[in-house]
Amino acid sequence: MISAVTPELILHITAIGLIAIGLAGVVLSSHLFRMVLALVIAEAGANLMLVLAGYRWDAVAPILTSRAEPAAMVDPVPQALVLTAIVIGVGIQALAVSILIRIRQRYATLDRKEAAERMDAEIAATLGAPRDISQEAPLGERPLPPLPADQINMRGDSP
Amino acid sequence: MMLTLLDELLLFSGATLLVALFIGRGLAAGWMVTILYGGQLLALLKMAVLGYEGGTIASSLTLEVMGQALSWRFDALSWFFALITIGSALLSSWFSCGAWERSYIRQGGNIWLFHTAMALNVFTMLILLASGDLLSLFIGWELVSWAGFLLMALAGGVAARAAMRYITYAMAGGMAIFGGLALIYTASGSLQLEAVTTAVEQMSGAKLWLLVILFGGGFGVKMGLMPFHLWQAPAYAETPGPGSAFLGAISSRMGLFAILLVLVKLFGIVKIESLKVPFTLIDARDLLAWIAVFTIILPTFTAMKQNDARHLLAWHGIGQGGYMLLGVVVADAMGGAGGLLHVFNHATYQAALFMAVTAVIYRTGTSDLNKLGGLVVRMPLSFVVLLIGIIGLAGLPPMNGFVSKWLVYRSLLNQGMPLLFLAAVIGTLGTILSVYKLIHNIFLGQLRVEHEHVSEAPWSMMIPMLILSAIIFITGLMPGIPLEWIASVLQTVGLPVPDYTLGGVESSSGSLDMIWVIGVLFAGFGVGALVFYSAGRSKRVHQLDNYAGGHFLSADVRYQYSDNFYAGLMHLIGGWYRGSFLWLERGITSLVEFLSLGMQGLYRRANAEFYLLTTALFVIAWVVI
Amino acid sequence: MGSLTGLLFAGGLGFMLLAVASGLDFGAPPMLIGTEIQAHAPQQTGAANIVTSVVLGYRAIDTLGELSILFASAVSAGLVLGRRHTTAGTQTKGGFILQSGGSLLFPLMMTIGFYIIFHGHLTPGGGFQGGVILAAAFFLPLLARPGARLHHKSLSLIEGFAGASFILIGLFAMLEGKAFLQPMLIQDTLGQLVSAGTLPLLYLAVGLKVGAELASLLSRLIQTEAPQ
Amino acid sequence: MSTNLVLIIALPLLGAFLLPVLMRSSMAIALWSGPAILIYGCWIIADLWLSGFAQPLSVAIGGFAPPLGINLYVDSLALLFAFAVQLLGLVFWPFTLDQESARRQSLMLLLVAASTGLALSGDLFNLYVFYELAAVATFGLASASGSGAAYVATLRYLILSGIGSVLTLFGIALIYSQTGTLNLAHLAQLAPEQLHNSLGLTAFLAILIGIGVKAELFPVNTWVPEIYATASTRLSAFLAGLLSKLALLIILRLLLLIFHQPEAAQVILILGILGVISGELAAWRAREMKRMLAFSSIGQLGMIFIAMALPDGKGMLAVLALSLHHLIIKSGLFMLAEDWGGALERLRGSAKASPLGAVLFVLFSLSLVGMPPLPGFWAKFVLITELAAQVEPLYLLGLAVFLLATVVEASYLFRVAATLYGSPAQDTLSEEIPKTKGLSLLTASLFGAGVIAVALLIAPVGDGLQAIAAQALDVDLYITTVSPAVSGGSQ
Predict the structure, then answer these.
(1) Which residues in C lie closer than 8 A to residue A99 (C-beta atoms)?
(2) Is residue A65 part of a domain?
């Protein structure tokens, strides 16, 4: 059905393109604030997609006026939904930014890898356990222990 | 509601558990529990009709959960195993009362936990033996596994680690059974025992193989079948003495019980025989038989290398399990009877042996075979018990082990399986050699200076040991007594029944009459004694009033060579069973560890958004394209 | 390497989604409930703005949820930032033009904000849009005079009571034997300022709540300027 | 009174809005208003249940009949989970008295309201709103511990969850563009014609991955070990125990009502299997209690996903049983971890100091491993019988993975049990050994008592669950109860 660049294609490209850009941004950025910004972009894409769902050719905004009844009105529901979605997005962004401020204060960095490193180190320190990834076996021994040779006496050699 | 005899037994057993649980800290708790075991034995004997005539006694307790009906009942098979269970519990518990109990507490042991764990084991085993459908079988199975874990782990330290290892094996086995259960449920829509037969009828070869492997492997773990045998010896050996005796006598036989019930009774040997191993000439039954034979040989020779008496015995326990399975798998009248009789016989002598060793530990504080010797002059009765036990274990006349092993050999020959026979004989040879090491290093040779003042084991320990010895001898003399029960068992599981007499069996290919054999044997002994006492005169001297290699002996000279026993033999054969499947266990452990490390890396080095993106891409691509 | 993969994957996902979305019949939505709502909204809610009917009538609980989300994020930001106030008093004030412009715009923006809120059921706009303008009105003087502070106590009072009154209006309907959040007092005066029953009241609550919420969020952020 | 039901969402919200204000005027009222609201919520549900609740009902909010308005769909399943939300909210209530307690309690009330909404709502977009509300409240509570690690963990979680929300929203937009409705019952009617195509599947998968973030679906669950290690134990317990199940419930409802295509089930199955493998194996090497529980919870949820993937809703009973079981057990374990957090080595010999805690740990572990006759066994039993009945090899693979994972699970749980009962390391003083105590031990004991009670009453509990599962499976019942009727179609 796509023979030429039609308006709907452009709109869909825009919406999905925003989502893809946002996703790529979140994946690729090494800075936490940029990740939040990329998230904002992706959200904008999703919102656009939502509001496109209600669009009708040649229709007016869904507001009744004293004038004569118009031919058609666009779907009011997606508009209400997108209003909600936008506000939700704003709330989350505000929270994200306030957390960012705190991270910056604590760790003096907003680099994604560095922050993750610092977090791991802090978790390990507070819990008093080595990091999971360390090569030592848990609990200092192999969990399914072939007992030491002298205890199991498998070989039976004299001690 | 009318209580059936089975209800009474289970209530009695539950009551024992409660008594141990709530007043187990009291002074006479051990005696009380022992008396209650006696009560259980009486309750069991009230059901003796099962053992002699067959039939079933159901419990009035039934449950229906999630559409599954659960029921419990006893038949000849259950009764026979229950007899051994309760009998060994009674004697082990008796053995633990009094002197041993006090020394255990002195060493910081928790006697309350010990009695509770024993009572729990007996209770759960009875529940397992009473299972009336596959679901209750599985429930009983898991209960027994965890109860065993408790008993094995309670000593802490090495024992706890051995128990950890055990529970990992047991869980793996349990899950295999669980999977098998699910397959049967799918095929027949029910978990009643009859469902197995119908399910087996419908199943294709591959599924049937899977089922046999799942059940065989699952039950085999508990039996300590190769290659799942590694857990058993350390776990049993490190359990506190009477616990070892009890576990060694019966615990791993629960696996045989389940195999008899599921694979022999419900599957049917014929069905198993029809499963061919691809690309070879053998079938599933041969495979089982060969596994049994290897279970005889390798653990037996491993036992020979042990320097700890308890470990030595525990390794033998694994090997003897192989004879039982071998007999059952051969599945003719003699083999079936031999396998089952060996269950009974093994329980008696294994318990006696563990008790004797525990008595030695009680007096000397060690079970290290290199630190003992010459105790025969200090603990003569224990020596006799141990001697009777090892004669039984080695399968020599006049003790009961001879009868069961003879039956198994006879059936192997009758069925034309000379290779298996040969292998079994090699196993027996290993047994004889290693039990000689046991008795030699403990009782014979030089008495050590530090054991100069050791005295005989106290009567509280001696009486159960003597009772067991008597049983070993009497059932060796008159195997017809247990054979009568076994005949009903064989009938129950659908195997042929041999013609038995009080003294043994009669068959066209060869009969055995132990009364006659023992008569001849004793006549021979009599002649020997006559020659000994009439010909030479012996004189009793102190052990240092002697010489060796031309030198007089002094207390600091060791003239008993217990170190590096069988050096030549070990040199000859040591190479090819070293490690004995330890590599398999280590390999699996390392694999899990490696994977686990990778998974943790996955979570810790996570670029979560990238995962999300990738997943979204692939799943959507998968459905769209 | 990793970044290239990420880029390619994101692009691939985009094309895939595009391919899926191109199957949609753009510009002619099915509007199953949309048409119904258009037909019944004037009678059921009395609001000329059908979007308002949806926001405050048909999907009022969504709106309540969204208010709660704003509230939750304000409270969370309070938890995160509220531990230690780094006063921003050291910052320089804005110039004269900025300051007086801020003071001048404040009443105008308040007026516009409330106008938009009160006409939410008639014209485009409503509580959210108006609330944002209200918040901006409070925010302007803060930008001009960084040392100044909003009165957090009164803001949180407004926050609490505006949100509560939304729910209480809904509960009031239940007292009357109707459903939770059911529009009430609908007069037959479609298109006039006093119409649509309780909807303008709800919008007022929404507007105040959004305004207070955003204002407090912004002021918190501005007051917790990160140190060097 | 079914109309009262909406109060269990409205009242916590009201309480949350007013708590910060109330806290200023009267401490006492503020302290007790939260629990009072939750208790009232419990009472409303209990009252409804006791007054002979049999048929599911639909509560139209605002008096607008669905599909125009939003409705709450109340069946036994939803009611059960709503009740669990109130109860656990009460159990994990942050009883603290400090400057921040008003905020924390307010967030907790919001979380409870959102969770209740997740359990009850019958509208797709409304579910999304409640989902986001729960998410934001979670972020707030998770960062409340105030450590730098908590902030980073929360932010990472927030971004992941935000991306998930974008996908979810995209999926909802697709569904709405295709069908023009958002009501679940209405969608269930329309689905066979309009959504059983690649577009519908894409929408479902987008929603699955989005909501899967909360449901600890592999591989969007990397936040789990971070959050559980940094957030307060009570919050972790609530998240692992309840919120993950509610997200799962949404996915389940969508799967049952709308997207019952085999492809959807297969994706869930594969991700579930991977989740089991990754979670259980990672837990095997965990060196710290909370992380171990976090990984183990990933594994457990993978098992529930496997159950969910069974075709034709056959796994419904298993999903229900496993979810409820995991809810009880994990909550209990997390309560123990409140005192026993930190390196596992430190726990050597803890059983002497806190025997009850050790016994509870063993009890929970046994049930989690599936030892009969504890409830965990029955839950697993229901699952494996259904799995084995499938002919497709993927399901049998799931069965094999499930069984092997159980072995691994037993191994690491009992390693800890053995550590508890072992003797302490020589150089530790007895005061250094952590002890379970106070409220957390009491709470854990309550859960332990619950486990034993269920084990004893397994037959009636099983019947009850079967009835609930049957009701939840009945799509026609869902549609007729809500009875969405639209006169006109597209113009």
Answers:
(1) 80
(2) no
